[in-house]
Amino acid sequence: MKIAVLVKQVPGSESVLPILGDTTWIDEAQATFVMNPPDNFAIEEALLIKEKIGEGEVVIISMGPSRVQKVIREGLAKGADRGIHLEEDGTIETDPLSNAKSFTSVLKEENFDLVLSGLQSDDTGMGQTGVLIGEMLGMSTATLAMEVEIQSPTIRVKRELESGWFQWVKLKMPSAISIQSGLNTPRYPSLKGIMGAKRKEIKVVPASDHQTHSKSQSIDKVFVPQTSKQTVVIEGDADSVVSKIVNILKSDIKVI
Amino acid sequence: MLTFPEKIIFILLVISSLGLSWISFSKMFRVIGSGSQPINWKNVIVNWPKGFAAFIGQKTLFKTRPIIGFIHALVAWGFTFYLIVNVVDVIYGFIPDFHLLPNHFIGDAYRFFVDSFSVLVLLGVVYFLVRRFIVGDEKLATNQTVMLSDAARVGMRKDSLLVGLFIISHVGFRFLSATFEIAQHQADWSQPAATLLSGLWQNMDLSSLVLLEHISWWLALGLILGFLPYFPYSKHAHLFMGPLNFMVNIPRRSMATLEMIDFEDEKLEQYGAGQFHHLPQTQLLDAYACIQCSRCQDACPAYQTGKELSPSAIEINKRYFVNENLSKLSDGQLIDIPLTQWMLSEEAAWSCTTCGYCVEVCPVGNEPMVDILRARQDLVMMESNFPKDAMESFDKMENYGNPWGLSPQDREKWMEGRNVPLMREKKEADVLYWAGCSGAYDSRGKEISQAVVDVMNKAGVDFATLGNEETCTGDSARRIGNEYLFQMMATQNLETFEQYKFKKIVTQCPHCFSTLKNDYAELGTELDVVHHSQFIGELVSNGKIKPEPWMEDDVTYHDACYLGRHNGEYDAPRDVIQSIMKGGNLVEMEQTKEESFCCGAGGGNMWYEIDKGERINKIRFNEAASTGAKTVATACNFCNIMMEDGMKVTGHDQDMKVMDIAEMVMKGL
How far does A16 lie from chain B, in Å, by closest CA? Predict the structure, then answer.
């Protein structure tokens, strides 16, 4: 079983996000970068599948500037076997279709049985790259996997639907699946893993060799949303406070 | 006194006893030798006074349980004195009519001591047996929730009974033998007790008295010869191993400062201790030194609040593991059962706050806390098996440089509107002020940092701080067992220090203080680190600041473990508090200074929750409240957080408050 896990490095949830002068992206020099949190679950799922089957290879693949090697190493420390880094210079590409094409161009020779990805990235949150790659590689695809059962040559996936509904689907492998967060408990790398990761291979491929420059979308502007909520403190004795709240619920918010 | 055949038998007995002892003692040392990190016998040269003080002075017994400690001292002194007595008695047996310096005051004094110590030892041991077997002191029992081997639960009582009866019989028969001897001759008032008792035998004929004297002599000395090879199997081995333990212990800069692990060393395959033979030899020796008194268990905040941890159970389990696997272990075989299956449960390992109280009170110099720290290293670095919340803190430390996971760019927010010079602008200052993560991010911590810099500005101190260049010292990572992450954080900070010139580091966080001072020194960089209590204390005594006394209510000071027990600083914070007292008194809690009770946050417990039993901070706050003080003074941001929380859950938030000593001083400036 050969499994690819797509990971992305994104600004951490507590990072400062100063916007660049041209307002098309953030000032990366000031941001703190971490592994895209949903990708942790995809890595864990890949490792669990490999451990359950007892054989196979888990390959961590990421695109971005040299800083992304940190998250590839993180995956290797947890137990993945090798990494592939599509190295970008200068501006990073945010268009999922364009990115999917680049990834596909690298992945097609590898003949993966499974391509796993986190459900979406915490920066742009498109949630498309993994599925697009699956389609381009001619794989079966499923999104938001809550549970994965390998029954070679097929795979059963429990998908999360809206309003608490689930769906079991059976796919013929090879498949590309996006993993819902929370389905497993990502491990912390052991020291043996951390030490071992230093010796594992990360193949660096210049992304420019695989980029198509045919963008389907681009970012016009990033900005910090303006908060417009106002807090009203209602004072007085219990009775008057209650009647005021009832009034607000009736006439202002119109919920009762 | 002895007949010729008796002499022959005695000599044969001595030879076989020594032979058997050689076998049993060498087995014991082979078991100890199966541990990692060979004992450095050179430490004996430096540490022998410690062992001597413990053995002769019985000093370590008086810290807690002073009355029991005193009775133990009588038994111990008596028993030790008996080693000389036994030699004299053997000579008496072999040389007809031998007496040690008869008709000389030294000989009389000797006989008086033997006589009185015989009585004291007998009374003492009877007291101990009554305490254990009739009264059933609950301090000698261990909660069922604690992992303690079944063999130990039964074996400890048997062992105690055996040791008790041995001492009673040995000393008792020696005493009886003296009474029979006196009855044959005349009253000897240098032995008043024996002479009094000999009155009972006045109607016996001489031959019966001689026979009884022989029987008693044989039982007294025979028991010693019989027990000698048995020592290593019984907890009574503490008699030798306790003092030895003090002499060979690995020297530490502070209680929780473990030796540095060299991650460059590719031959190292094990980090921390996951199995018996991973424990250093000194810690296997601990098991033999332990007399199973459970003083550490009394002290342990985790045990006292109903967690699965008992420090004494760790040592006792080690000892019974040895007993059960003696032949394999002494043959050098490795037993690969994880420590968490027989020494302490995983939950127990995570319950330790590393407060060091167990190490402080141990009368034989054991370090159960260090066992726990080593077990944690294995669980984290080898097994990757530890509380999920701790894992998140590791990620936050690694990614954001602080366990809160807040932005590293927000470290300077607490400084806004204040004169706080930055090292990156100033490059050089007398004092590098280290705010620490809690001092930069926690809402109360920020107020404390502000008070510290306000005091420094008032005193005209030339200082600067690192601001956003500062990153977690790695204290929590190290105590939780993530040595690798600790070294990462430490290396980063040490590189930052190299860029600037400063004379000393001042910090209000005892965890940062101890880590920078002791743990960083292990990495090869000695820094002059001063706690804010010491620094402010000096500013007050030098007259650089003159705080106006304002405190009219009583204050109680809660000792921070990493300032007090770990670094021996008890006076500085108290002196600082005294400088602002006006009318009110500084009152002490029941458990104070060396015996202070933890707030519950240390050892990484700030970052994960052991959801069992009572909360440590609640117990401690109640203790503080019971002094009647209106203010609880702290000198540690974590203690401050825990005490404020304790104040809220105990419903004291209206009538009491928690203040850092820097805030108290600043209020008077």
Answer: 6
Cβ <8 Å between A191 and B271: yes
Residue in chain A closest to B409 (alpha carbons) equals A16
Q: How far apart are CA A26 and CA A22, in angstroms?
A: 9
Q: Is the pLDDT of residue A8 over 90?
A: yes
Window 176-205 of A: residues touching B by CB (8 A cutoff) are: 185, 187-195
Contact B381 A191 (CB under 8 A): yes
Residue B58, pLDDT score: 87
Tokens of A94: 């945010």
Helix (H) or strand (E) segment spanning residue B290 = none
What's the CATH architecture for A2-209? 3-Layer(aba) Sandwich (3.40)
Q: How far is residue B69 CA from its own chain's centroid?
A: 16
CATH architecture entry for B241-386: Orthogonal Bundle (1.10)
Please report how many Cα atoms fall inside a 13 Å half-sphere around the Cα of residue B544, on the Cβ side. Answer: 15
Nearest to B339 by CA among B254, B278, B421: B278
Smallest CA–CA distance, residue B407 to chain A, in Å, is 5
**Residue B562's pLDDT is what?**
97
Q: What is the DSSP string of B406-456?
A: --GGGTTGGGTTS---BHHHH-EEEEEEE-HHHHHHSHHHHHHHHHHHHHH
* Structure tokens belonging to residue B637: 């941001």
* pLDDT single digits (tens) B469-506: 999 999 999 999 999 999 999 999 999 999 999 999 99
pLDDT reported for residue A231: 83
Burial class (CB in 10 A: 0-12, 13-18, 19+), B426: middle
Contact A64, A9 (CB under 8 A): yes
- B664 pLDDT band, cuts 50/70/90, is very high
Domain ranges of chain B: 4-33+64-233, 241-386, 393-667
Whether B381 sits inside 8 A of A34 (CB atoms) is no
Q: Sign of dihedral through CA atoms A94, A100, A103, A106?
A: negative
Average pLDDT of the segment spanning B8-18: 96
A53 CB within 8 Å of a chain B CB: no
ipTM of the complex: 0.78
Residue A83 has pLDDT above 80, yes or no: yes
Give the pLDDT confidence score for residue B573 in this predicted structure.
97
How much helix, strand and coil, in percent to the nearest 5, is found in chain B?
A: 60, 5, 35
Angle at which helix B206-227 crosses helix B66-94, to 10 degrees, equals: 120
